Amino acid sequence: xxxxxxxxxxxxxxxxxxxxxxxxxxxxxxxxxxxxxxxxxxxxxxxxxxxxxxxxxxxxxxxxxxxxxxxxxxxxxxxxxxxxxxxxxxxxxxxxxxxxxxxxxxxxxxxxxxxxxxxxxxxxxxx
Length: 127
Hints:
By secondary structure, the protein is an alpha/beta fold. The chain has two helices and eight strands. The protein has a single domain, classed as 2,3-Dihydroxybiphenyl 1,2-Dioxygenase, domain 1. The longest helix is centred in the first third of the chain and has 12 residues.
């Protein structure tokens, strides 16, 4: 693998209730998800700027996408300080599983939470 590319190319977060999950992510991150029906699935795409070189993804409601707390852990960008997004999690219907915790001064901070659908996710930020 080319060491200059992202390790993750795309992510999909499974959801049981598309409207509830859309409200959760739009509230926590202060964004607007672009909704689309594609290949028998309802998808809500996170904002993405191709020129940034960063990864994007979507929330997905479909037969192959089952939410749960034991799947892969996706670290979402909480920069510059994940406390802002983490502070909105519970009011938006999620639950904080691990508060903001310093990894190292060089790497930054992390926190774990579950979203409105029960998926276990994480946030990372430098501050």
